[in-house]
Design goal:
Blueprint: H1 4-7, H2 16-30, H3 32-46, E1 54-57, E2 69-72, E3 78-84, H4 96-101, E4 107-112, H5 117-130, E5 136-138, E6 141-143, E7 149-154, H6 155-168, H7 172-190, H8 203-226, E8 229-230, E9 237-239, E10 242-249, E11 252-259, H9 260-265, E12 271-276, H10 284-297, E13 301-304, E14 307-311, H11 320-336
Parallel strand pairs: 3-4, 4-7
Antiparallel strand pairs: 1-2, 2-3, 5-6, 6-7, 8-10, 9-10, 10-11, 11-12, 12-14, 13-14
Helix pairs in contact: 2-3, 2-7, 3-6, 6-7, 8-11, 10-11
Amino acid sequence: MPSLLGQFFSNIKGSQEDIASKGLVYILQLSNSAKNAMYKLIQNNINILYTDIQFIAQNIGENNERPDISGIDNSGNEVIIIEAKFWASLTGNQPVEYLKRLEKNSVLVFICPKQREISLQNEIESRMRSDSIIYQSFNNILKLDKNNFLVIFNWNIVLNTIKEALINNEEKLLVSDIDQIIGFCEVIDNNTFLPIQDNDLSPSFAKRINSYYDLLDKIVDKLKMLTDISTTGLKATPQRFGYTRYFTIDDNCASLELNTYLWAEYSDTPFWIAIKDKAWQQPNEFKNKLMNASKKHKINIFNNNDILYFSLIPKRNEIEENVINNIAEKIVRISKELK
């Protein structure tokens, strides 16, 4: 049966993340069994034992970063940071500024819908590489220096682990409370149609999407200035998931795309490029070159239906010219590796 909170999901204003994270803090503050369950879940993944942690909400840092939940030990050290995510993109501070806050033997936990685990981890790792943060990856666990970790859990694992502990400890009122949060998260997790919010209908939203289409055209124009490309006989094409510009570059074929499917599934960017050989194919030898280009230039690459796509992460808070130049230069660097 859906929870009461889940039933009214579409009528709730404000941040979905705030509702879920504040509800989780409320339960962690009231129940030692809930806290112990959270400790054990973390320990099972990173082998660090935590006890006597005080959980608080939105502990603001020096750079105005505001994690959803902070776990403070008896010495006043912030040893656990928990960030609640549904479908909102990462903020400018995530995860780099959060990682910088951590003392040794600490952990940054992201909790997200199961459907978003892969794309969220891809974006997190991309930002860490861009900031030259060294780490080792073990499935959903990233190990850093100072014995620090970043772990990604889904809501189902976290909430049901805590619920089981509450049931075993016969904390019936809190079981009812966490059922509300579980129902709320399940509606969000399983809803393929997210309820329309006021901001979604703002003309600024339409202008933003239209500007992305224009940006693709301007990137192609910029590429014509930087390298040998041709659009002769190749038409710009609207697609099921966006818009595509086709061109040849350095004797290869390319599709530069605004692709909402790849955006939703793999990485936090609408801009993608697939480069193929003269026959518009990606044979294994060619794919190896693409993979090497991805590693060399730290540009993430993803396999979608056996086609490798580079995710073109745009610069944040920059004027249009700088965004165009940056993406065009990435494409040129990739292409040079394929000669």
